[in-house]
Design goal:
The chain is an all-alpha fold and 117 residues long. It has two domains: 64 residues, no CATH class; 34 residues.
């Protein structure tokens, strides 16, 4: 059986993160927890910004290379039409699911806005 090192590293990191979070939350004073959370939030923000930075060029490059490999204009149109159909269908389905869940669960209805700053 082939061992996937990246999968193992991700799973180990998840378990390690849970354990460290539990230890910090259980055994440290609130001041330490606040400082730790602030530092971790900074790292998380940097990571998310890096991911957002790479997504647009990666998607653009993938589309350009894919279209260039198709060659025939008729095939490009057919694939583009199917992609647009999939995009609109997925958007409509996610919109409907979101609307149903909001109307069933009423998120935020328990929040008292009078106490907001």
């Amino acid at each position: 059986m082939k061992s996937n090192k990246l999968t193992n590293a991700i799973l180990l990191s998840m378990v390690l993160g849970i354990v460290v979070g539990y230890i910090i939350h259980t055994f440290c004073p609130p001041e330490t927890i606040a400082a730790f959370a602030k530092n971790i939030k900074l790292l998380g923000t940097i990571f998310i910004r890096l991911v957002k930075t790479i997504i647009a060029p990666l998607v653009f490059t993938t589309l350009v290379v894919g279209i260039a490999k198709l060659g025939d204009l008729k095939t490009v149109g057919r694939v583009g039409g199917k992609a647009m159909l999939w995009f609109f269908s997925a958007s409509l389905i996610s919109l409907l699911i979101g609307m149903i869940l909001v109307n069933v669960l009423h998120p935020g209805s328990y929040i008292d806005l009078n106490q907001a700053d």
